[in-house]
Structures are given as C-alpha cells and as structure tokens.
Amino acid sequence: MIGPVDLDLGGTPQRHRVVVAMSGGVDSSVVAALLARAGYDVLGVTLQLYDHGAATHRKGACCAGQDIRDAREVAGRIGIPHYVLDYESRFRDAVIDRFAASYAAGETPVPCVDCNQRVKFADLLSTARDLGAAALVTGHYVSTCRLPDGRRALFRASDEDRDQSYFLYATTSAQLELLRFPLGDLTKAETRAIARDIGLPVADKHDSQDICFVPQGRYSDVVERLKPEAAEPGDIVHLDGRVLGRHAGIMRFTVGQRRGLGLASPEPLYVVALDAARRRVVVGPREALAARRIVLREVNWLGDGDLAVAVAARQQVYVKVRSTRPPQAATLVPGADGVEVHLDDGEDGVAPGQACVFYQSPGGGARVLGGGVIRRADIAEPVQTPAVA
C-alpha cells in the first residue's frame, strides 16, 4: 500500500474537490479510492462514449456497458458520488469520424490521442471546472511535476512497459496545470495489489483495448461504414512499377506490414506506401522502409521556450514513432512543410497518421517535450506508372 496521495494543490486535501475520470478499470478505480482515503472531495465521472449495447459483453471495451456498471459499483464501495456523462456525439465527431477519415486517406491513426486531447482533456476538463474541481485526475501511467519556473511538465512513467505518454503528447501546458496522474511511479502489479488490499471488485479485471469503439477488433467495419471509399479495391504495385495483385481496400494495410498481402513472391515484400488517391498499395523490400527524415503536422510543444526557437537551434531529442517502439535519438529541424525530425539511425515502417513523440532522454521517467502527427517520411514514393489505354 502506498502512502497518502498528494496532488500538489496546496493546503489540506479536505479543501479540494477533484474529479476522477473513471473508466471502470482497475487503474482509475485505484486512483479514486486512494484520493477518497486521503480526504479529497472526490467526484467520479464516467463518459459514455459510444453505443454501449453492443459492447456490454465484449472483453476489451471501455467507457460502455459493463464498464459503466463497474465504475458505479466501485464508487459505491468507496463512498463517492458517481456521474455518467453522455459524450457520444462529441466522441463520434472528435474521434470516430477522424479515425475513419485518416484511414481513408491512407494513414494509420492513433484514436487514443484524439480521445485524450479532444474529449477527456478538453470537454471533460471543462466539465470538471464547472463542477468546482481543482483538478481532473486519471489513471494514466505518466507523471507531472512543477518546474523551477512554476510550470508543470509531463514525464514518462517509471515503468517503461506501462508508460502511456505516447498517447498524451498533445496535452497542452495549460491543461497540465489542472491534470494529475497519481500512478506514474507504480507498476501495474503494484496497482492491482492496492486494489486487492482495498477490496475493489475490479482488482483482477482485464485491461481495455486501445481502440475501444471497434466491435470485435474489426476496425475495417467502422471505416467502411463511414468512409466506403476506403474499401474500394485497387492494385498492389511494386516499387519498380509491376502490378502484383489486387487488394480489397487500402484501409486494410499499414506501412511496414508484411503479412496478409496475398501475394506469391519469391522475396519478402512489405507495404512501403499507401496511395489513397489512386487506391494503390505500394510494396517493396525491407530496405525500402528505412526512414531518416519525418515531416510532422499539428505539433504540440511542451519543452522550454518556443517551438520555433528549439527547431531553429536544431534541438537534440529522443523520439518514439509508434507506441511500441523505444525512443531513438533525433534532431528537430526546420523544413519547407513544417517541423521535421531527422533520425540519427533511421527507423523502419514509419507510418503517416501515427504520432512522433519527443522526449528529453530515452529512459523511464524522461520528460515529454511534445510531438506531432507524422505527415510523411522519406521512404520510397509510389511509382508513377502510365495509365492503360
């Protein structure tokens, strides 16, 4: 059991109302329980984000059906008020529609980033303020602390295997002033042990999936319904211009993919680019995946000073180009199309639509300096083959 939780709000806990975003999982449940024990005036809030009828009995769902009931049961067990807010329309507009549009454009999106930034840390944070809360608290595995200049900074979790900073890079400095993450120094095993010690009914509950709104994990069903053009068939084209086969929609592919291409080839082939305009999946050898230069859009800067100054000074950083990849040494560089990231050693399979997140150092507990959405990388471009008469 860990000691009393201090949210760095000043004064005694009893003076402060806090809102805990309760997903119904073990992490946010433990946070709510620890804060209630510490004496904070805790309000539990669960967001209903999509039609939860179909998800009620589905493992890996969050923010729907059984999870809402679990959150309500935990709130009753620890003696705090619990509210369910209907955010379905906001979630559809800010997350699901953008998710489908990104796939239709030949990208591989990260919907958790949009959910955190455009729903939880925007709409829910505003709701928390309306409720008179001094902080919005979540069960994410990251940390914040106050810098010498008075600003709050975001840091990776101590446990690198549980770190969720990749999905939170778009959090703004203003939002960090009101956000708190008490689990940043714990492992998942320690969190579950606390839940068992407290007697929470969700102590051994499974973790939720990343894409919570996708029934049975078939994201293509969602994309095809909202963006049917993403399911239109097209050619699978080799970098050298040869048409090797047909596909059933570019939404079924991502840069770096090897399996599921449906090709009979003597050499291993990988998806190296998606040409949405011409509905082409471009494949090539593994070496064609290597990227050293990444162009970003929608960059959020959490480092010291201005982003423009850091880029002009070619600041050294460490970057993650997928949530499962370790941070790699890189340099921020000004480019004609915006901020560029030049990788010291290169990366394979850098996919447009994914996040590129900046860190001050490579290990656990490192400060998060921001990040952006990958617009493109300097991998091989689709071959311009002549049209057939």
From TrEMBL:
Stored Pfam families: tRNA_Me_trans, tRNA_Me_trans_C, tRNA_Me_trans_M
GO BP terms, alphabetized: tRNA wobble position uridine thiolation
Positions of the tRNA-specific 2-thiouridylase MnmA-like central domain: 231-284
Compartments, as annotated in UniProt: Cytoplasm
tRNA-specific 2-thiouridylase MnmA-like C-terminal domain segment(s): 293-374
Coiled coil residues, start to end: none
SUPFAM superfamilies per UniProt: Adenine nucleotide alpha hydrolases-like (SSF52402)
Enzyme category, top tier: transferase
Annotated site (Interaction with tRNA): 140, 354
Residues the record marks as active site: 115 (nucleophile), 212 (cysteine persulfide intermediate)
Keywords recorded for this protein, A-Z: ATP-binding, Cytoplasm, Disulfide bond, Nucleotide-binding, RNA-binding, Transferase, tRNA processing, tRNA-binding
Superkingdom, taxonomy of origin: Bacteria
UniProt-annotated stretches for the region Interaction with tRNA: 162-164
Disulfides per UniProt: 115-212
GO cellular component: a single term: cytoplasm
Catalytically driven reaction(s): S-sulfanyl-L-cysteinyl-[protein] + uridine(34) in tRNA + AH2 + ATP = 2-thiouridine(34) in tRNA + L-cysteinyl-[protein] + A + AMP + diphosphate + H(+)
EC numbers, comma separated: 2.8.1.13
Binding site for ATP: 21-28, 47, 139
Record InterPro entries: MnmA-like (IPR004506), MnmA-like_C (IPR046885), MnmA-like_central (IPR046884), MnmA-like_central_sf (IPR023382), Rossmann-like_a/b/a_fold (IPR014729)
Family indicated by similarity: Belongs to the MnmA/TRMU family.
HAMAP family xref list: tRNA_thiouridyl_MnmA
Protein function: Catalyzes the 2-thiolation of uridine at the wobble position (U34) of tRNA, leading to the formation of s(2)U34.
PANTHER family named in the record: MITOCHONDRIAL TRNA-SPECIFIC 2-THIOURIDYLASE 1, TRNA 5-METHYLAMINOMETHYL-2-THIOURIDYLATE -METHYLTRANSFERASE
Annotated protein name in UniProt: tRNA-specific 2-thiouridylase MnmA
Organism taxonomic ancestry: Bacteria, Pseudomonadati, Pseudomonadota, Alphaproteobacteria, Hyphomicrobiales
Gene symbol of the encoding locus: mnmA
